Amino acid sequence: MHANILETCIVLLCLSLSKTLQLNDASTSPEEWVCDGALLCFREFQRLSQLPVTGGLDRVTLEKMSSPRCGVQDAWGQRVSRDFTGRQLRKKRSPQTGEKWHKRHLTYRIMNWPRNLSPSQVHMAVKMAFQLWSNVSGLIFQELQQGPANIRLAFFEGEHKDGTGNAFDGPGGALAHAFFPFRGEAHFDLSERWTLNGLKGHNLFLVTAHEIGHTLGLVHSPVRHALMSPYYKKMGSNALLSWHDITAVQQLYGKQASLLLSELLKSVLLFTSPDPKGGSRTPQYCQGFFDAVTMDEDGTVLVFQGHRFWTVFNGRVSAPLPLHTRWPKLSLAIEAAAFSPLDSKLYFFKGRRIWRYSGSDLDPGFPMKSSDLGLPIHPDCAFFYQPLGRMVLFRGSRYYVLNPESLSVEPYYPRALRDWKGLPRRLNGALTRPDGKLYFFKEQQHWRFDPGKVRITATGRWAEKLPWIGCHTNPSLRDNELL
């Protein structure tokens, strides 16, 4: 909810409460009660938001009020009403003490999906979100494609016959809301831009994980970095679940019997997923997406997702590590990466900036602004193109050619992406293999490009077809060859 709307709502709430009071002290005017009510409202909001408690609408408070958040009611509204009237107001989506599911195996169903994500991306994000909770509790979740389910997830716009005051408010503000057991529903604002990488939108995985917490019976947490904080968190260096989140769900559903403490820490902090065919755990990126991919001078594949990266050499994948452990001063997440064999340097791209590293050392003068080099902001992917001896960046329907020596875009660029016949827009990764072949990635698909033939020569699902990507696939599987 935007700041001016929330401010009005709080004042109206306080005014409403003041009018219902039975004033025993004739010396106290209704206006004083209204001011006291507003002051208490603001103080409670600030206290639970971990802001300086001033009781006034200062800049920090207004900015917090306008931050994207969950639409489920906070505790401060109930507390204010109780303190002023001596009774609890009935509010939508307010859990009762001990409200939980009385079984450990729950089903869920995705009713529809947003416009800018594919069904496979949505299914993957939702599966990851449910798994986050099952990793630390005694719960087991199963997706259903049809029929009734315990928990239903759906996208709506505006008023959606969900009760008074539950209409979505368009981009920004309340992104989603959920109902506690036993209704078991989570609703998401269809007008928001949903993403899986946090760029120009809201991360569907994180928001879904938060709303699932409500459907399990968890209320908002006063801990700032908790997943169940009313203000949605972002992918960063902190664990996805705080100990406050873990304790809350385990109080309702117990611990996962098979998890030792060390395994629990690993599942929360590293967040990997079981191999769907059984056996060893596979990297999380194998479940469907990554932010960038490249290969260094030793032939090691580097895969980037959020604030972490994996290395893959001869098909063997490392444990995930935070980016800053290898590249200090790098952004917490990146959009594109490319290694240049001309100068043995690694280039990273994020938003409006570019980082260049020699080994683990950030080169002097970096990060630089993309605009200073004539490059676009938010590139889709970057790679070194051997026939030109230049760096190439894709962005939307155009591509740019960068001279690594002069750090300038070559004349007559950008050009239309149709020069690369057969490649789709909005790729999320590209790299050149030792044999000179180029591999492009988008979601779960890959395209192999032969610079000599200047055309696509193979396509397929990279997690299954490319053993060097580190997803433990059968090495006998071959690409879908195109003659």
UniProtKB/TrEMBL annotation:
SMART domains: HX (SM00120), ZnMc (SM00235)
Cofactors required: Zn(2+); Ca(2+)
Keyword set includes Amino-acid biosynthesis: no
Segments forming domain Peptidase metallopeptidase: 97-255
Residues the record lists as binding Zn(2+) 1: H160, D162, H177, H187
Family: Belongs to the peptidase M10A family.
Protein name from the UniProt record: Matrix metallopeptidase 28
Natural source organism: Sinocyclocheilus anshuiensis
